[in-house]
Write a structure and sequence with these properties.
Shape: globular
Strand order of the largest sheet: 1-6
Structural class: alpha+beta
Distance between the termini: 37 Å
Largest sheet: 2 strands, antiparallel
Number of helices: 5
Radius of gyration: 18 Å
């Protein structure tokens, strides 16, 4: 069954922040070493990767600003968000930085298993007598790679739990 990707800003059925064509352009123009590999994936594989990357970003990030509508399926578009130069983003489009981040993240998700760390990864020490576990956070591969975080961290922060979402009507 073919995968349906909907990248329409503000849509109640949107499931991605960018289209396959936009991701293809991103990889061709910005990711010299990944472009050939990206082109080897089928259209459906690319759609799955883009949808997965979008979902993980929305689950793991607390975005700046406010939702534009209570009916939009995704956390963007947003109102009250500004770029580093103080320019506001239109509340009717998905910003280019987010399309780029989703394209980058989708490639990483498809190229390697980002969520399947070794069972002992992240532990510096394990002791049995009087059970002691020492965590080494640097030993775990983060779900969102640093290259993606550097694209989005100005516009939000990693989620550390539940937070009430404000809706602008």
């Amino acid at each position: 069954m073919a995968i349906t990707l909907n990248a329409t800003a503000g849509s109640a059925s949107a499931n991605s922040y960018c289209t396959v064509a936009e991701a293809d352009t991103y990889h061709k123009e910005n990711r010299y070493h990944s472009y050939d590999t990206w082109q080897e994936y089928s259209s459906d594989e690319k759609k799955r990767g883009l949808i997965w990357a979008t979902r993980l970003l929305d689950e793991r990030m607390i975005w700046s600003g406010l939702l534009v509508s209570s009916t939009q399926a995704l956390r963007w578009p947003r109102a009250g968000v500004y770029d580093r130069d103080g320019n506001g983003f239109s509340s009717s489009v998905i910003p280019q930085f987010l399309k780029n981040a989703v394209s980058e993240f989708a490639y990483f998700l498809m190229a390697s298993e980002r969520l399947g760390d070794d069972d002992t990864a992240g532990f510096k020490e394990l002791k049995v007598g009087t059970l002691e576990m020492v965590v080494d956070k640097l030993d775990r591969t983060p779900v969102i790679p640093e290259s993606v975080m550097s694209m989005i961290n100005y516009y939000g922060s990693k989620s550390k739990g539940l937070r009430r979402v404000l809706v602008r009507m």
